[in-house]
Amino acid sequence: MKHILLLCMAVIFLLLMAGCTQTAQQGQPAATTTPAPVNTVTISAPVATTTASVSDNTVLIQNMVYNPAQITVKAGEIVRWVNKDKVVHSVVFSKDSKIDPSGPLSASQSFSVKFYDTGVYTYSCGIHPQMQGSVVVI
User: Fold this and answer.
1) For residue 101, is the peptide bond before it cis, meaning its omega torsion is within 30 degrees of 0?
2) Which of 52, 91, 94, 103 is most buried (most C-beta within 10 Å)?
């Protein structure tokens, strides 16, 4: 009986761990959350692992706003959000964008997304919905 219980617990653990991972399909943005401060971003598989500077494509989360509120980038570029506030924020895209949300970002943490397709991607803070912004991909 103990062996069955241990086996069930192991299977549940593996299923939970498998559910905690995500992969981006080709043509879909890949998102990562990283502790900051960092000057590089690593994009995980199936996108080829790359390290890219995103200093020009950084959105600061500060004083309860995204700055800049709208950023324009080329397809294939990475945008990084850095929380400079002392309170927790997040970056949540509209459901039709199919971009996973950042999750809670504490002070100095960052979140990055590589945009593949042209268009306008609107987002807001999941904790403070009045905070809104957009990424224009050309």
Assistant:
1) no
2) 91
Q: Nearest CA to 105 among 128, 122, 136?
A: 128
What torsion do the CA atoms of 72, 78, 83, 88 make, to the nearest 10 degrees?
100
Tokens of 130: 């009045």
Instruction: Supply the Cα-derived Rg of the chain in whole angstroms.
Output: 17
Measured CA to CA, the distance from residue 47 to residue 56 in angstroms comes to 22
The pairing of strands 110-114 and 40-42 is unpaired
Q: Is a pLDDT exceeding 80 seen at residue 22?
A: no
Which percentage of the chain shows pLDDT scores above 90? 59
- Tokens standing for residue 43: 């994009």
Q: Are 92 and 51 in contact (CB under 8 A)?
A: no
Mean pLDDT of 102-128: 97
pTM for the predicted model, two decimal places: 0.63
